[in-house]
Design goal:
single chain, 115 residues, mainly beta, 5-stranded antiparallel β-sheet, two-stranded antiparallel sheet, 2 helices, globular
């Protein structure tokens, strides 16, 4: 486990990708969240090529969700990492969060925007 915050400069327009490794925990999902920030901008082709079904099998997850690639809007950021980096599908990610998702979480169901 790491206890050192990760500071990243020049992040405006910086592409980042996120992977959720989801495991059933009763009625909910436990999620391990990995983010590419800190390894350079997320490579679009490599991120797109990650096979979520294969990654689920490789990691022992019940489900893997690839959050769409997005871009930071601030000039710098600090991320408190919660674990060690990991190669997921050929792309390096930092372990950024552990969280619980609701039982009805369906990453492929369109959600209404709230803004």
């Amino acid at each position: 486990m790491t206890d050192t915050p990760l500071r990243v400069e020049n992040t405006r327009g910086y592409a980042q990708g996120e992977i959720f490794l989801l495991s059933r925990a009763g009625e909910n999902f436990e999620a391990l969240v990995y983010n590419t920030t800190g390894f350079g901008p997320c490579p679009a082709d490599e991120f797109t090529a990650i096979d979520v079904k294969q990654l689920a099998a490789d990691t022992g997850s019940d489900l893997v969700w690839k959050n769409p690639r997005r871009f930071w809007m601030m000039d710098a950021l600090t991320i408190n990492l919660v674990g060690e980096p990991r190669d997921l599908g050929g792309v390096m990610f930092n372990f950024a969060a552990r969280m619980q998702m609701p039982a009805n979480f369906d990453p492929w169901r369109p959600r209404a925007r709230r803004w």
